[in-house]
Design brief:
The protein has strands at 2-7, 10-18, 24-29, 32-40, 45-49, 52-56, 60-61, 67-68, 72-73, 76-80, 85-90, 97-98, 103-109, 112-117, 122-126, 134-135, 140-146. By secondary structure, it is mainly β. It has two domains: 2-57, no CATH class; 65-146, OB fold (Dihydrolipoamide Acetyltransferase, E2P). The chain is elongated.
């Protein structure tokens, strides 16, 4: 998977290749091969490089260069496609109750299956995609009405 990372203020292109079904990946930066461990939680990826941990959140930029993340407005959270691919599996339907961290959709991109998870507890209000559908970065995949927090 080709990625861009900001290292000391300079954008660099790297590739990331998963080793089997493990949490181990090889990061290729210039002529260097770096083994990394990747663990996904409900809000970010935790990456370990040479024993040092880093938290990584995915961010996309609009055509105007402005950073955009999954939108969360007035109690409605939208999961948007962080990558271009094909929806392999939709695990929720409108009206389903979901918990933070639950897998909502599985998208295949570059021969890798990506489980996309909820970042909120709530009720699914819309699923505008279906299995087999091709999606582009930024396509709305699931909308969830967040449960009101107690207290």
């Amino acid at each position: 998977m080709g990625l861009r990372v900001n290292i000391d203020g300079e954008w660099r292109t790297v590739t990331l290749q998963r080793l089997g079904d493990s949490a181990r990946y090889v990061l290729v930066l210039d002529d260097r091969l770096i083994e990394v461990l990747v663990a996904e939680d409900s809000t970010a990826f935790n990456v370990q490089i040479a024993g040092r941990g880093y938290e990584v959140e995915t961010v996309r930029r609009s055509r105007r260069g402005r950073e955009e993340t999954d939108s969360f407005v007035d109690g409605l959270w939208r999961l948007v496609a962080p990558l271009t691919g094909v929806v392999i599996e939709v695990r929720v339907a409108s009206g389903d109750a979901v918990e933070r961290g639950a897998v909502l959709i599985v998208v295949e991109a570059m021969k890798m299956l990506n489980e996309l998870k909820s970042r909120v507890d709530g009720t699914v209000s819309a699923v505008p995609v279906e299995a087999g559908q091709r999606v582009e970065i930024g396509t709305t995949l699931v909308e969830i009405t967040e449960l009101a927090s107690a207290g």
